[in-house]
Amino acid sequence: MLVFAASDKGGTGRSVTSANLAYRRALAGDEVCYLDFDFGSPTAAAVFGIPRVLDGFGHQGLHSYLWGTTDEPARIDVWASTERKTLRNRPSGSGRLVLLPADRDGGEFVTDDESLHRCVDLFLRLNAEFDVIVVDLSAGRSYAMDMVLRATSRPELRSVPARWLIYHRWTPQHVTAAADLVSGIVKAGADMGHEEEALAGAIRFVRAAVPAVGSPLLSQVPSTTARWMRAYDEKLDVMAANRGIGKTRVLGSVPLEPVLLICEQLITDEDVNGSRIANKATWQALVELSERLTDDAYWGQP
Amino acid sequence: MDATGETPRHVLTCGEVRTGLLPTRHCLDGRDAARLLALRTDEQVRVSERPNLHARSPDVLTGVDCRLPTANDAKIRAIGTVAARAVLTEGRVLQATAYFSAPAAGLDQRQPWGYYLVRPGVLVPLGRLPEQAVAAGFLARDRSAVPSGELGLGSIAEGLLGQLSRHPLLDHDVPFKSRRTRLRWAALPVQDSADASIERFTLDDDGLRTIELRLPQSTEPAAVAGLCEDLALHDWLLTTVVQKLDGIRMGAAEGAAVMNVVRPLVDHLLHLWMPSARVDRTLSPLWEVLETEPGFTRQWQTLVQRIRDQLTLQAIAAPAEASTAP
Q1: Would you call A157 and B172 a contact, using CB atoms and an 8 Å cutoff?
Q2: Which CATH class is domain A2-211+250-298?
Q3: How far apart are CA A27 and CA A47, in angstroms?
Q4: Is the CB of residue A129 less than 8 Å away from at least one CB of chain B?
Q5: CA distance B177 to chain A (A)
């Protein structure tokens, strides 16, 4: 299954949350790979605790592969390469977790027919090997997004299930921007030959950095603020529903979480139960999202 | 090279074979296998049904003018064509091989293309070929990337697999997920009419295998490719079944989870084991070496027994579960 992670703007925690979902799926036993298609600012390597990812590899990242200067994009086994000690003990029964990094100095680039071809080949090849293929796109519309839309419209990839996660923050501006982004995706996809309804049905939203009243982080806010927040939350719900991104199209919400916002790292069970630097609610949200990601009951209807 | 333009016999044959599950739900029958592998209009796909279903594409040629890898960084330029072919076993396991052979020496200057085109699958060096250094360079395991300008057999084989994967016969709905393996091989001539031998056979974690062979000089390059395809196929079967069984938490996993892993192996892989079914008779003694050490078939039989034991246990457990159900 291909999972495309997109966001309306930056700052939604798209990369770090998607990396956590990939990690959770691998823990659950799936064979998982994570493709850093955020070509302008690749960060996935840092999230997995592999900052020196391309040292010694030269130009062998996804940029080089799509440009045609290498035939084998570099693959990093996260369990074996991460610098985070708690991640290095791969639990028995877990699946592989493989990162395909972007070139460090690659930058955003215009894609052409050749790169499209190579993108299709890459997806086909990874699909034979992995249960879940997470593709992290940059914020907003990008060349990479158009390329994957085009790739998934090709007959070769039609039987490979593809799902889209749209990350957005829980503010009026973000709700509007996310709704606009999705209508743009569906329209562009339809022009490329996607069936509009099927594509729309494969898109779900993830509300990120949602400040939940009553959460430990906000337990000290005055009652007037709390009341106002609840009322505003309801207003946003109505607004989101009016823009077509109401509750039925939401896969989950991730609470405001310092570990995600500040360190941008994987949240392990140890972070929640041992050192307790991350909140249990965040952990639960990530577990829930990762389960729903592959649960057909949450997908299908636009 | 002699004055008549005849190429002397090759002193080096190298290749790389990539092996993986055919990316489609059901295995292909002989006719569809032939359609898939029809890479050329002027030459037929060879399909044989005994002792198992096996289809082999005609060779396709890729013209190259490039450096050859060497263990001592000597700069060796060679020109000619690399041959590539695909084979499909029981309509289920797809392999692509790219290979070439090279004579001990060539002319000092590049010749017109026609000269190379009449020598399909031969790379002619400019000057003398240090065959030992090239074989060692080719098999070097730390070559994570092929430097630009250097021969990349892997990418030719990969390109062929990519082309075949886009064929409309394939639905990409695989019965189980599996990894590909790469087997890189090099064959040098035996010394003083000694017997054919396997000098080295290595396995790497990331799916790369290397094998160095010593063979009589009269051995046809295509026969070496056939031997290595057979080795790669059986190594892939072992690797894949081991990985699948390792993925099961033995004892802890529920019956359905075990069956989800075991069932596709029974459906698609267990009947594929047939070492040396099509290997050239002069080369089949090499298989016997591998049967003694590390013992391919011995390990396979153990795996098959494990799978059958799991099935038996599930069969015993199933009625018990049914009778306790409300």
Answers
A1: yes
A2: alpha beta
A3: 17
A4: yes
A5: 5
